[in-house]
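Quick check before the chapter quiz. The format below is the same one you will see on the exam, so make sure you can read both the input and the output lines.
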Amino acid sequence: MKIKYFLSWLPGIVIAIGNGSLRQFVYTLYFNELGAHQLSALSFIILFGIYVRLIIPRLKLGSPAEAIYVGVLWLSLTIIFEFVFGHFVMNHPWEVLFHDYNLLSGRLWVIVLLWTAISPYLFFRLRS
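Here is the expected output.
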């Protein structure tokens, strides 16, 4: 793993925490929990997309395969962080953490993860 790929993932944590705060302190004033969750997924996708659009040129990726590698790395780091931080630091039970993976109940976390994985490739291709 190139350290720059790991370091480029770290601002995503800041974006996610800021977006989560926006959900908790703003969206929930106007929407129920599910609606706030869904709006938060959309706002994260937009904010993270802006970030990825800005960072991709600085990463100087050499090929589509390298962009895919970055996306898979970011996806892996995100899932690991979510479960390690969520369970062992925030003390969320496993069932709470897995709840956001249920698309059938309107939870959109899987789409956020998909965006995290494919956005480096998409923005790399747009630059090519």
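If your answer matched, good. Residues 3-127 form one domain.
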